[in-house]
Design goal:
heterodimer, A: about 575 residues, alpha/beta, Rossmann fold, 3 domains, six-stranded parallel sheet, globular, B: about 170 residues, alpha+beta, elongated
Chain lengths: ~575, ~170
């Protein structure tokens, strides 16, 4: 029996086990929406702006490891989605983005709501397709899911002209696809892994530096075993937080621009650096020339060859899946140890002595206050109230760094933020996607009064679908990170970083049908949080914390500086 | 950094959009393209592309890695890593009147060019060789005599039995 392209789209999603998609209808996708209407297997979440659809699908994926799916119409539907797609691309999130297109005969004629979707999105997707014939539709969607979730994951876009969704053909969903041009490596080269093992066994001052690849590869369990077996210090980047449990004494915090003193010192002074699914980002290693001054040997495990030796020359590259490679490496190390080989125990002991010295600087200490709410304090209390078990999403700015520093993540896929692109506005749609995918977990969105206003319309979506996320608004009436840079690098000239005429967030939340709270005194922080996660557990609660306006994020490595050239506080200015 | 010239041969799926991905990659990441040629191979499902670029060893390594990352790229080789040969085709229309007419014919013969179109005022010369030879021919001409030139950019292939094939 022949079915329409629109029905094929929905059948493909069912075949892939997709339970939720996020989207917004429009002319070019009406046949698809008509098919969505006729079934219950795939639930559609109607957002208020296409950007949020992509972010929500992105968080859905980040918190579950499923491929996130969203659906938008042609033209402005696509251009609105681009920020979301680029955000997911930069953080390697597996997603399938379905977009409507004008009918094939109208393509190129500047038709109503036409844009060159494939052209516009090409640089910010892992791959994209334009389907011109309904007969190619099922196989293309199969390929899209395959490409999105394998290798280094990423968003894949399928552009579907309206006539293709109306045309009919027989439906058969391919059980698998093989592409001669796409065969990502999974297994690391055993000779290289052996070389890495030899370096590890001899290392005097080793450092394990882990990134988002650990989360994406579902390798947290292996990473914890690896670190425990070796007893080496471990740091996790902003994207890697939760990959290794923060409560372990082996964990030295996050590295980089706002990393801990001990993590940055250890990154710079180690003799063997074991990079696991991390990419030596400019926010992580600072100035690469300064970083390379120290003669460390670098082992780099990554599934994407182009990430290796991109910014920093690597000694032992291992291209492969992080989980598989860690398993191989653990096996080899175990073998050595049970054969009577020893790690460099003397070296390690004095290295740990040094690290503990660095740790004593207590670089994350902040001055508590009885009058002003310190943003760090709010995050610490949030951790306490949620037992460290919540999924925390954030927007972009100072609050993002405080969330990363003070909510000590124990598990993977509990921390969702835009690390690569740094997209303000992701927090609330991320929380939506995370809550929908994980209804039994607490979900908190740590945000600021700047970021939250970039996607605040999604409060309406949360109401419609009954998504009781908790918004923790750290409201300092400034675009805080901009203000901080202006203070430090631009002579305290606060050009357009002050937010005047802010809405009354309490009444705004109430207008959307939610619970709003304003918290102005430190003593009220914990009670408010307890109320939000207790009495109002089934409601969306918008907590507007009026925080210290001048608090800065410390430590800080300024742009272009070396990793150890840290400012530890206002006294270093 | 010494920027060496490299010739990268790429086999890629003969699909719409594949070329723009390659070109987009070079512009997005700020790599040079000196020339780029592409056409289908004897297997119509594949195109073969020759890219002439330049950069340090690190840059060239990144270029080949990023090219390989494109879903439609099946295989590639940096021809300059071993012995190879390259050819470029040029069509050049020159003024050929009076005593210059005979001189133009002679010059074309010296460079083993072929005159493929003639009017009473012009010759069109077809010339094949590496880029240096084509440059030399242009240099040998009086600039005022050149009416139009068109060059294909280099195509390259490995010497000996080395092949780039699926």
């Amino acid at each position: 029996m022949e079915i329409t392209g629109a029905e094929i789209v929905v059948r493909c999603l069912r075949e892939e086990g997709v339970k939720h998609i996020f989207g917004y209808p429009g002319g070019a996708v009406l046949y698809i929406y008509d098919e969505i209407f006729k079934q219950d297997a795939v639930q559609h979440i109607l957002v208020r702006h296409e950007q949020a659809a992509v972010h929500a699908a992105d968080a859905y994926s980040r918190t579950t490891q499923e491929v996130g799916v969203c659906l938008v119409t042609s033209g402005p539907g696509v251009t609105n989605a681009v920020t979301g797609i680029a955000t997911a691309y930069m953080d390697s999130v597996p997603m399938v983005v379905l977009t409507g297109q004008v009918p094939t005969h109208a393509i190129g004629e500047d038709a109503f709501q036409e844009c060159d979707t494939v052209g516009i999105t090409r640089p910010c997707v892992k791959h994209n397709f334009l389907v011109k014939n309904v007969k190619d539709l099922a196989e293309t969607i199969k390929k899209a899911f395959h490409i999105a979730r394998t290798g280094r994951p990423g968003p894949v876009l399928v552009d579907i002209p309206k006539d293709v969704t109306r045309d009919k053909c027989r439906f058969a969903y391919p059980a698998q696809v093989s592409m001669r041009s796409y065969n990502p490596v999974v297994k690391g080269h055993q000779g290289q892994i052996k070389k890495a093992m030899n370096l590890i066994m001899r290392a005097e001052r080793p450092m394990i530096y882990t990134g988002g690849g650990v989360i994406l590869a579902n390798a947290a369990e292996e990473l914890n075993r690896f670190v425990d077996a070796l007893g080496f210090p471990c740091t996790s980047t902003l994207m890697g937080l939760g990959g290794f449990r923060a409560s372990s004494p082996r964990f030295v915090g996050m590295p980089g621009m706002h990393g801990t003193y001990e993590a940055n010192m250890a990154m710079q002074h180690c003799d063997v650096l074991i990079a696991v699914g991390a990419r030596f980002d400019d926010r992580v290693i600072g100035n690469p020339k300064h970083f390379a001054q120290n003669p460390h040997k670098i082992i780099h495990i990554d599934i994407d060859p182009s990430s290796i030796s991109k910014r920093v020359k690597v000694d032992v590259p291992i291209v492969g899946d992080v989980r598989e490679t860690l398993r191989d490496l653990i096996g080899m190390v175990d073998e050595q140890l049970s054969a009577g080989e020893r790690l460099n125990e003397k070296g390690l002991a004095s290295w740990w002595g040094q690290i503990e010295e660095w740790r004593k600087r207590n670089c994350l200490a902040y001055k508590p206050s009885d009058e002003l709410i310190k943003p760090q304090y709010v995050v610490e209390k949030l951790h306490e109230v949620t037992g460290g078990e919540a999924i925390v999403t954030s927007d972009v700015g100072q609050h993002q760094m405080w969330a990363a520093q003070y909510y000590r993540f124990e598990k993977p896929r509990r921390w969702v933020n835009s690390g690569g692109l740094g997209t303000m506005g992701v927090g609330l749609p991320y929380a939506m996607g995370a809550k929908l995918a994980n209804p039994d977990l607490d979900v908190a969105c740590i945000t600021g009064e700047g970021s939250i206003q970039m996607c605040i319309q999604e409060l309406s979506t949360c109401k419609q679908y009954d998504l009781p996320v908790k918004v923790v608004n750290l409201n300092n009436r400034y675009l805080g990170m901009v203000r901080q840079w202006q203070q430090i690098e631009y002579g305290s000239r606060y050009s357009h970083s002050y937010m005047d005429a802010l809405p009354d967030f309490v009444r705004l939340a109430e207008a959307y049908g939610h619970v709003g709270m304003r918290i102005e005194r430190p003593a009220d922080v914990e009670p408010a949080l307890r109320e939000a996660f207790g009495r109002y557990r089934d409601r969306l609660v918008f907590m507007d914390f009026i925080t210290d306006q001048t608090e800065n994020v410390w430590p800080m490595v300024q742009g272009g500086k070396g990793l150890t050239e840290m400012l530890l506080g206002a006294e270093d200015l | 950094m010494n920027d060496m010239r490299h010739i990268i041969s790429v086999l890629l799926e003969n699909e719409p959009g594949a070329l723009s991905r390659v070109v987009g990659l070079f512009s997005a990441r700020g790599y040079n393209i000196e020339s780029l040629t592409v056409a289908p191979t004897e297997d119509r499902s594949l195109s073969r592309m020759t890219i002439v670029t330049s950069g340090s060893d690190e840059i060239i390594e990144q270029i080949t890695k990023h090219l390989n990352r494109l879903i439609e790229v099946v295989k590639l080789v940096d021809l300059t890593e071993s012995a190879y040969t390259e050819r470029e085709l040029m069509l050049i229309k020159v003024r050929a009147v009076g005593k210059d007419r005979e001189e133009m014919k002679r010059l074309s013969d010296i460079f083993r060019g072929r005159i493929i179109d003639v009017t009473d005022r012009t010759y069109t010369v077809e010339l094949t060789g590496d880029g240096g030879k084509l440059d030399a021919f242009i240099d040998a001409l009086d600039r005022a005599a050149i009416l139009e030139t068109v060059r294909t950019g280099a195509s390259g292939i490995s010497r000996g039995e080395r092949v780039l094939k699926v």
